[in-house]
Amino acid sequence: MSESLRILCLNYEYPPVGGGGGRIAHRINAGLVARGHAVRVQTAGLRHLPAHETVDGVEIFRAESFRQKEDTCTVPEMGLYLLTSFLPALRHIRQWRPHVIHAHFAVPTGALAWAVSALTGVPYVLTAHLGDVPGGVPEQTAGLFRLVQPFTRPIWRRAAKVTAVSTFVADLAEKAYALRPEVILNGITLGPRPEIRVHNPPRLLFVGRLSIQKNPLLAIRALALLQDLPWEFHVIGDGPLRAEMEREAQTLAPRCHFHGWLDGVAVKDAMERSDALLLTSLSEGLPMVAVEALDRGLAIIASRIGGLTDVVAPEENGLLCDLAPEAFAAALHRVLGDPGLLPKMRAASSARAARFDLSRSVDAYEATLQRASRAA
Questions:
Q1: Predicted TM-score of the model (pTM)
Q2: For domain 203-356, is the CATH number 3.40.630.30?
C-alpha cells in the first residue's frame, strides 16, 4: 500500500476560477483525497468567493489577487497571484509540513513553487498544460516568452518531476528546455458506453469560450458552405465573438442555436443528444471538451493542431482539417454525406475514451508525487 501524502497544490486558477487546467487539477486532487492523501490548494481569490473552503475533501485557500474576471487572467494579475500567495504558501509548508508540492502551469505558478521549494527544501512536481510552454499559444504568449524564458529554465530544472497533459505539450517542453516530461493525459470519470445512433438531422456541437483562440467563426463560415445538407448546429459558450457569430449565423437560421454557458450536467446532456463535435481552435494542449466528447461517442471534426494528437485518430474517430472554412466544409461534407461514416466514427470515439479514464490519470500522478516526495 502506498504511503499517504500531504500534498500542497499550487495553481493560479482553480474552480470556479479559470478554465480546464483548474478543473483538471481539482479532479486529480479529489481522486488523491479519495485514496487517503491530504491535499491543500493555494490559489487566487475573488471577492465573492470564500477565503477557505473544502470541496470533495480538498482544502482550498484563496488569497486576494485583485483578479477581475473568473474566466480570464492578465499578466499583471498573474504576478499579483504570485505576490499574494507567497506568504500563505510558506505558512502551509511551515505549519502543515507537506511532503510534496504539485504546481500546475510552469508560468506563472512554477515561479511560486520554485521560490518556496528553494526556501524550504520541499520538492515539487511541475505539470505543464499548454500556454505555459513556449510555442503553446504563440499568438498570445510569443512576446512574453521572449522576455521570461531565460528565467523559466531554473523552474523546470529544479523540479523533482515534470509532467505534461498531452504528447504535444511534452514535445514543446522538450524543444524549449531539453528535457522530456512524463505524459499524463487529462482524465475524466467515464460514463456507460453510449448507444450509437445518428440523429435526423445530424446534430453538430461547439462547446467553449467564443474567443479568438477557440476560433468559433470558422465553424459558422464552414456551415454556410453546406446549406444543401441536413444538419443542426448547437453552440454552448459565450465570449467576445458571440455577437459576430450570431450576426453571421442569421443566414443559417433556424438551424443554429446559441445556448450561452451551461453547467456540466447540461453540457453532458447536450453531448448525448449530438453526433459530432466541431473544434476549430487555433491551439490546444489537450481540450477536455474533446475528451468528454469521446466519452459520449461523438465524432470529432477538428483543427489540424498538435494538441489533438492524443484525441483524434484521423479517418477513425474523426477528421483533422486545415484552418479554413473550405477545409472544414469538405470534412463535414464527407461525414454528413456518407450514411455509414458517422456511426463508424462515433463508435471509434467511444472505444478511444478508455485512454482517458480518470483513475489512470490519478494512478500516474500518485506514483509521480510519491517518487518526488522521496527526493527531499
A1: 0.85
A2: no
